[in-house]
Amino acid sequence: MVRQSEVQQFERAASTTEVALPATVRLRQLPPLVRALRPMQWTKNALVFAALIFSHQALKLEPLLTSLAAAVTFCAVSSGIYLINDIRDFEHDRLHPRKRYRPIPAGEITIRQAAITSGILLAGGFTASWLIRPEFSAIIAIYLALMVSYSYGLKRLVILDVFAISAGFVLRAAGGAVALDVPISPWLYVCTMLLALFVGFGKRRSELVLLESQAGRHRANLELYTLPMLDQIIGILASATVMAYSLYTFDAVAVPDNKSMMLTIPFVIYAVFRYLYLIHRHNLGGSPETLLFSDRPFLLCIVGWGLSSVVILGLS
Questions:
Q1: Above 90 in pLDDT, residue 236?
Q2: What integer best gives the mean pLDDT of the chain?
Q3: 180: left (phi over 0), alpha (psi -120 to 50) or beta
Q4: pLDDT-based confidence at 104, cuts 50/70/90?
Q5: CA distance 304 to 133
Q6: What is the chain's alpha carbon radius of gyration, rounded to the nearest angstrom?
Q7: Distance between CA atoms of 47 and 192, rounded to whole angstroms?
Q8: Percent of the chain with pLDDT strictly greater than 90
Q9: Torsion angle in degrees (nearest 10) through CA of 239, 265, 306, 167
Q10: % helix / strand / coil in the chain, to the nearest 5?
Q11: Distance in angstroms (rounded) separating the CA atoms of residues 45 and 251
Q12: pTM for this structure?
């Protein structure tokens, strides 16, 4: 049982370190079972479309539909994994100022309902992946194994927990390429890995600030992190992400010979700096998926990068 004083401490931490997220407020209006699927986190699966864009097929209908089907498959599978994770951690989530409002720890849906829904989503997602392309189902199988390992052990290992999350993002990018049966530049995987590590460690920083002395009770390995350590890691990854993407824009085989992809570098630099501002000034790193809908400058930057990339690669 959680003592009332602890609950009050968490609530004070949440109110003093974070600003309101309108997208999160709107999400609470959805039915509990839908909220348990974490639809806001489906935005992560947009990485599946990277192969579509960088293979110069964004304006072709059949590859677009294939990528869309692959993204929907990842949404189903990832939601199934989220349910498994919430079932396993619902006692710990009751200690968290925000996660205790999730449908399972809040008692809005039963563990049995969540388990049945998870089974349906995972079975349906794997079947769909096989129909899209058998090789794509192998990516889904690896993703499932990785995420189950994360839920049942890797999430408790310091540093490796974030590397496991990063690998999940890389598998999304790889899955998009495999679904389309197109080669993809190794630079895409490097940039995806670095960006995912950057966001992942930003999330750990937010949790550490939010939960303070109670961080270890929510997630065992949080007490092994320190703010100075995380700030150093985040700074290194921010620099590495910008550098890797910049090198990609003029060194990768698939980019236009006129180096016009370099025009997208300012979007990436601004997005990185904006995210740093949000995690240090407003402690919003704990919910990076909501920033796309809650922070207009960040959203406009991402949209600007996407549109400019499609135009530049589509005209090359």
A1: yes
A2: 84
A3: alpha
A4: confident
A5: 32
A6: 20
A7: 9
A8: 44
A9: -30
A10: 80, 0, 20
A11: 26
A12: 0.82
Residue 315 vs residues 59, 154, 294, 310, 312: alpha-carbon distances, Å: 10, 43, 32, 8, 5
Label residue 2 by pLDDT band (50, 70, 90): very low
Hey, what are 28's tokens?
């609470």
> What is the per-residue pLDDT for 28?
67
Could you report the per-residue pLDDT of 265-292, keeping only the tens digit for each? Answer: 999 999 999 999 988 888 776 677 777 7
Tens of pLDDT, residue by residue over 39-53, are 888 988 999 998 888
Terminal-residue alpha carbon distance, the chain:
61
Distances (CA, A) of 165 to 20, 171, 179: 26, 10, 21
As a whole number of angstroms, the distance between CA 246 and CA 109 comes to: 46
- pLDDT score for 19: 44
Q: Give the torsion sign (CA, 10, 88, 167, 55).
A: negative
CA 63 to chain CA centroid, nearest Å: 24
d(CA 292, CA 40): 9
DSSP letter (8 states) at residue 113: H
* CATH number for the domain running over 26-184: 1.10.357.140
**What percentage of the chain carries pLDDT values higher than 70?**
86
Residue 211 identity (one-letter amino acid): L
In degrees, rounded to 5, the angle at the alpha carbon of residue 288 between the alpha carbons of residues 282 and 291 is 70
Cα–Cα distance measured from residue 270 to residue 54, given in angstroms and rounded to the nearest whole number: 21
Total count of residues recorded for the chain: 316
Smallest CA-to-CA distance from 154 within 97, 219, 92 is with 219
Give φ, ψ of 209 to 5 degrees: -70, -40
Higher pLDDT, 268 or 96: 268
- Taking alpha carbons only, the member of 149, 179, 177, 178 closest to residue 163 is 149
